[in-house]
């Protein structure tokens, strides 16, 4: 007897699932960035520029408080729970939970329990002020909580369009996060004397959980060129820009099969993957074209997301920064209610 196909997703459900994937990945990324920067401070090698760079990675156009110092404690507060930063960990977990609450019938009960318990655990630590006294443990719990949610999605959710939208949001967010990380950090991978800054090369890899993988891949000392190539163009590492863009393109193709009008979505995500797949790191570094390449790739990510919104979410959303969307109307309303 033929298997009956699952009913197509409603636009609002697809929208919520996509944003769950993006918000959880954004929270996990922020936790990892702060954890590594705090490690640099603990080792006594953190410089003022490191905190400036973390602010740049975390703020996405939001203003850092003018009266706050740019030190570890203040920047950590900005990244974790500052109300004026919609990309703070507490804000993104709040938005992920609100979207999950709106689609309880689409996700599994295990997924809802995980995202709900993660939200309340993080909120409890922040409200009690305990998170700063054991920051590493707190940030690890955020990272592991996000990983557990995505694992539960793979193991307990119907593998249809819904699962694909969550994964697509995660992969697009991860692609842009890695592009932005390389864009902000690559100039500091060498010291003023031109020699590799080994501490910052290692730290940049750790910001993508890539240190051990990179060492194994090259079987050679870490140096700036290898860091850039591995994070951008390695096809086998799950946090490289190429790996993430490739899987985003595959998910976009799977979604487009259900909608003949979504050919533009598949084309845009495919173009982003192709741009990364055929790039040459030596050519980019020698020509001085790395920044232009990274900017262009983020523009492509922006175009891909706009096509996705136009085809499936039925909203006229225009991200403020390439590849990092401002909140859609639904998310804005939710944020104002918190």
Give me a quick take on this structure:
The chain has 338 residues and is mostly helical.
Can you put this structure into words, describing what you see?
The protein has 15 helices and no strands. By secondary structure, the protein is mainly alpha-helical. It has one domain. It starts with 10 loop residues before the first helix and ends with a helix. It is globular, with a radius of gyration of 20 Å. Helices cover 69% and strands 0% of the residues.
What topology does this entry show?
Elements: H1 11-42, H2 48-59, H3 72-80, H4 89-102, H5 109-128, H6 135-156, H7 161-185, H8 198-206, H9 211-218, H10 224-233, H11 241-256, H12 263-277, H13 281-287, H14 290-313, H15 329-337
Helix pairs in contact: 1-2, 1-3, 1-4, 1-6, 1-7, 1-8, 2-3, 4-5, 5-6, 7-11, 7-14, 11-12, 12-14
List its traits.
single chain, 338 residues, mainly alpha, 0% strand, disordered N terminus
**DSSP summary: helix tally:** 15
Question: Number of domains in the coordinates?
Answer: 1
Number of E-type strands: 0
Mean pLDDT: 89
* Helix-strand category: mainly alpha
Low-confidence spans: pLDDT under 50, at least 5 residues?
1-7, 316-338
Q: What fraction of residues sit in β-strands?
A: under 5%
SSE order, as H and E?
A: HHHHHHHHHHHHHHH
Helix content estimate: 55-70%
- Rg result: 20 Å
Which word captures the global form?
globular
End-to-end C-alpha gap: 49 Å
Give the oligomeric state of the chains in this entry, treating copies of one chain as homo and distinct chains as hetero.
single chain
| Major β-sheet profile | none
């Amino acid at each position: 007897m033929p298997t009956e196909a699952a009913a197509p997703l409603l636009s609002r459900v697809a929208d919520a699932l996509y944003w769950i994937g993006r918000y959880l990945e954004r929270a996990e990324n922020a936790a990892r960035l702060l954890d590594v920067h705090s490690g640099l401070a603990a080792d006594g090698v953190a410089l003022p520029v490191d905190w400036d760079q973390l602010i740049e990675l975390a703020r996405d156009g939001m203003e850092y408080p003018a009266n706050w110092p740019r030190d570890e404690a203040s920047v950590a507060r900005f990244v974790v729970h500052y109300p004026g930063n919609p990309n703070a960990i507490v804000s993104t977990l709040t938005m992920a939970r609100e979207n999950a609450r709106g689609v309880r019938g689409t996700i599994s009960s295990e997924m809802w329990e995980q995202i709900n318990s993660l939200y309340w655990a993080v909120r409890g630590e922040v409200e009690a002020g305990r998170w700063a006294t054991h920051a590493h443990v707190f940030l690890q719990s955020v990272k592991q909580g996000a990983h557990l949610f995505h694992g539960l999605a793979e193991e307990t959710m119907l593998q249809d369009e819904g699962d694909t939208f969550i994964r697509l949001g995660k992969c697009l967010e991860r692609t842009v996060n890695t592009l932005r990380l390389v864009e902000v950090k690559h100039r500091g991978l060498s010291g003023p004397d031109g020699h590799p800054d080994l501490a910052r090369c290692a730290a940049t890899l750790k910001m993508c959980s890539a240190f051990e993988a990179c060492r194994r891949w090259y079987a050679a000392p870490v140096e700036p060129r290898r860091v850039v190539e591995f994070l951008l163009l390695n096809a086998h590492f799950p946090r490289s820009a190429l790996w993430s863009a490739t899987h985003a393109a595959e998910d976009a193709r799977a979604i487009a099969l259900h909608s003949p009008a979504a050919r533009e979505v598949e084309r845009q995500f495919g173009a982003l993957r192709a741009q990364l797949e055929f790039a040459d790191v030596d050519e980019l570094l020698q020509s001085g074209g790395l920044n232009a390449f990274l900017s262009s790739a983020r523009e492509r990510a922006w175009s891909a997301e706009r096509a996705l919104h136009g085809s499936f979410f039925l909203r006229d959303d225009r991200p403020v920064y390439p590849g990092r969307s401002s909140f859609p109307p639904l998310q804005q309303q939710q944020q104002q209610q918190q």
